[in-house]
Amino acid sequence: MKKVFISMMMSVVAVMAWGCSTDHDSDDRYDASIRLSELPDTAREFIAKYYPGAKISHVGRKGTVTTTAYDVEFTDGAEVEFDATGLWTDVSAPRGKAIPTDIVLPAIDQYVSGYYPGAAINEIERIIPSGYEVDLTNRLELIFTQDGTFLSSYD
After folding, report:
1. Do 18 and 24 form a contact (C-beta atoms < 8 A)?
2. What are phi and psi of 33, to 5 degrees?
3. 27-89 is classed in which CATH architecture?
4. Quick check: 103 and 110 in contact, CB under 8 A?
5. Residue 123 half-sphere exposure toward CB, CA atoms < 13 A
6. Considering only the top CATH level, what class is 93-155?
7. DSSP structural state of residue 59
8. Fewer CB within 10 Å, N side or C side of the chain?
9. What pLDDT sits at residue 13?
């Protein structure tokens, strides 16, 4: 009887341990390396336009069964994230560096250069549907509407 009880307890512990592990696919998530050619056309065009000649260290696809996102990392530390259609959702440069300014709405670029002349845009995140979150090289974070109107700042 004692052996049966111990066997049952070991089985229960094994099932609980498997259920708590994060390396199984019960949540239908995936994260896979892909080729650049597997990105949506819009994403590839974005990279060619704003990062011509840049060396890519990793291209990945991540998400769940219902959502897909892409991630491109460059050897210099820059990174761009795209949604399933290839529209950028987040663009970041290495710490202290600026992203290409042509990516940013002119109103946002003008606001930053006018109010923070010693700083540059280090990261911009598209917050759908409300607008943009912009991180500056001086570590200040700014929030803008979809049309580039300044809303708030925080650090």
Report:
1. yes
2. -75, 140
3. 3-Layer(aba) Sandwich (3.40)
4. no
5. 19
6. alpha beta
7. E
8. N
9. 46
